[in-house]
Amino acid sequence: MGHLPTGTVTFLFTDIEGSTRLLRELGEKYAEVLREHRQTLREAFARHGGVEVDTQGDAFFFAFARASDALAAAREAQHGPDGPIRMRIGLHTGEPLVTDEGYVGIDVHRAARIAAVGHGGQVLISRSTCDLVGADGLRYLGDHRLKDLTAPERIYQLGDGDFPPLRSLNATNLPVASNPLVGRVRELAELSAMLLGSERLVTLTGPGGSGKTRLCLQVGAELLEAFPGGVFFVRLAPLSSPELVRPAIAQAVGLPDLREIADRDALLLVDNFEHVLDAAADVAALLEAGEAVKVLATSRAPLRLQAEREYAVEPLPEDDAVELLVQRARSVRRDFIPDECAPEICRRLDGLPLALELAAARLRTLDAPTLLRRLDHRLPLLTSGARDVPERQRTLRATIEWSYDLLPHELQDLFARFAVFAGSFSHEAAEAVAGGTVDTLGAIVEASLVKAPGDARLLMLETIREFALERLAGVPDAEALRRRHAEYYLALAVSAALDTDVPGEQRPEIVVPDAANMRAALTWALEKEEIDFGLELLVALEQFWVFGYTAEALRWYGAFLERADAAPALLRARALRSFGSSAHFDGQFDLAERLCEESLAHYERLGNEHGVAVLLHRLSISALNRGDVSRAQELSERSLEIHRRLENDKGACQPLSLLAAIALQTGDRARGVALLEESAELAARVPWRWWRAGTVSALADVALAEGRAAEAQRLVREAIDVALQISDRVGLSWYLSQFALALALEGRTAEAGRVWGAVEKAAAFVPGGPWLRDAGRLRDEIGKLVDDEFEDGRRAGRALSLEEVATSIEHRAVASECCSGLTVRQS
Given its phi and psi angles, is residue 19 left (phi above 0), alpha (psi -120 to 50 degrees) or beta? Predict the structure, then answer.
């Protein structure tokens, strides 16, 4: 992609008519014909200043700074060499937003739609382009509705050629949309495939404001040509009784007897079924009466018919949500420029299209930072929707209330109780805390007031939770419910064994999904002055905090410890030790050392040898950081001796690693490697996956320093596998950095760049880990190996998450092989 024009830009889209037929006719020759076609177009468009934006299959997308240049390029392409390829071209001019990913805005979609309604050999031009180039040589074809369903576009044709009528939507009862659909590319493709395939009844489900109706209409527009019997839109929202559904369908179709349409290739779009679900039998009867007609319904709850295929409409992903917010904001304030607040606004509104549109309306008078601050109370703010939409869609509160009022009283009470949860929560938690059952949980999910995103978990969107919290205030036992919630999550945290004092396998992966609920429990404890409870929960989460939450942990520890004068001595010792761990990983080494010394003093007074051994190890790290190697060795050896005497392998593996680091630092490679191997073996025996991953990573560092890239990859794969298992994004960042260096050392620079790009984008390192201390060295090593392929891979990697890159590395088989026995060869 070259340097993209900005400001007023003319877009040119090309497409080949009948490409599938042409492929069948030409066979293997098609590839050569297509290659020559592309080369000819690229040369022609480049001569007129066109910049190639994208190429997909047999289609091109170019941008021009001047409309006249775009028209000249289209004219040249239209009169190019004769051949089997018949190409259609569309031109449209607008003022798009330019991002790192390319152009964003409705003008891009409109240009593509204009090209799509043409025929081979035809060049179509929008009114905005015509206004700039003049009407000479152009033929007016009338106003046409495009598949974006917005107001008709005045379309012109270049030259006087005769072509069939445009493939527009001028004959349908689909309503005109005020704006084109944003995003939903995957959903459109999947739903179109389902309705063109064997499915006869598909129901779009989702919470109010998720965009079900708009998506339904767009699917109908996309499939208009595939249903010669017609595509008919039926509004059910105004109906007050299920008995009115059948007449409403008949009126929309224009037939007194629905059996007449049952055998037609027609598509019925039946909107807002949730309040007349008893009429689902009419839909079943219609499908049974014939074999051709198909139905696409929208409802906040499924119809529960045998033929039904439910399709959940999720909120918009962040990029699409930002595009929607920007588009709608510019309709009320043309000079709106998105800043760093725009993505956060979209996240706070859960990506719900209705909420985003209502928020955009507020940007008429508020700037984005002010709007963001006021979103702490979403429901009162998000009002004043357009007057030409149903009353229940003019405010977010009314949209949610519509669904709530359809619930039986006992489910309304359960819905309110679910507000006690923050973020997602498990089925077990819903039953133990809120009193749900399998049946009632299912009913709430069916009503689209709670989502079931997978992994046996439930989620209430924050916009809906705010409404539920208002109802929770009226629940008689609300305070008892909050205590039960806090106690449940303390028990869950304790079961994960993340406290250094707790034997057994650490399982941080069972805590990570409930981080928001842990925070809610801590908030409750602080508000209710339940200080001992809060300290117990903080310590139970000790290992969790070092997964990238250390700054948050420091705030919690500070808040509770300043109120902990009456806390039991052992609890205070454990809290200070855990506080020191978070301070160390946050890079506050002096604070960490002071806290560990205070904790050690408590353990010594209590005569708790295990606690003393743990703190001696922690203080040895501080000594090594200061460069006091002899003091670090003395403390580590004392710690190891106590752990050995107590037969505590979990404790022993920690000073072993520190002693290994000292040996390597002082040049005793053999002893350093042997101690690391022993630490890794003990961690596997305990088992302590997080510690083993870090120790294996340290062994990989030795291999990298000695140029043994293949060995390093084998070791790092195991660490990556563990980090994925336990949701350790901080460790994962470091392990992937090591893997990138190993790939680069082997000359696989494109792969190395891809991995490194994802690490750079994630920026998940924390100040106190070994990764940040060595990150500069690692960057220098990689910097020596950078080439053009590395940079190409780096750009591609920045579009990927750490998890996507990690799971693409085939490491699992190697990881299990590593677990059977760890050896490091002498070079």
Answer: alpha
Q: DSSP secondary-structure letter at 513?
A: G
CA–CA distance, 382 with 716 (Å, rounded to integer)? 49
Paired tokens of 574: 């454990």
Element (H, E) at 125: strand 123-126
Determine how many CB atoms are found less than 10 A away from the CB of residue 761.
16
Q: pTM above 0.85?
A: no
Cis geometry, peptide bond prior to residue 152 (ω within 30 degrees of 0)? no
The single-letter code of the amino acid at 715 is L
Q: How many residues does the chain have?
A: 827
Q: Whose CA is closest to 813, among 740, 669, 713?
A: 713
Of 774, 771, 704, 773, nearest to 739 by C-alpha is: 704
Give pLDDT tens digits for 238-254: 787 888 888 888 877 76
Any alpha helices (H) in 268-367, and if so which ranges? 280-289, 318-332, 341-348, 353-362
Mean pLDDT of 812-816: 40
Closest CA to 217 of 129, 277, 147, 310: 147
H/E element holding 465? Answer: helix 462-472
Q: Amino acid identity, residue 822?
A: L
Phi, psi of 451 (to 5 degrees): -100, 155
Report DSSP letters for 31-54, one per residue.
HHHHHHHHHHHHHHHHHTT-EEEE
The closest of 163, 293, 171, 275 to 227, measured between CA atoms, is 293
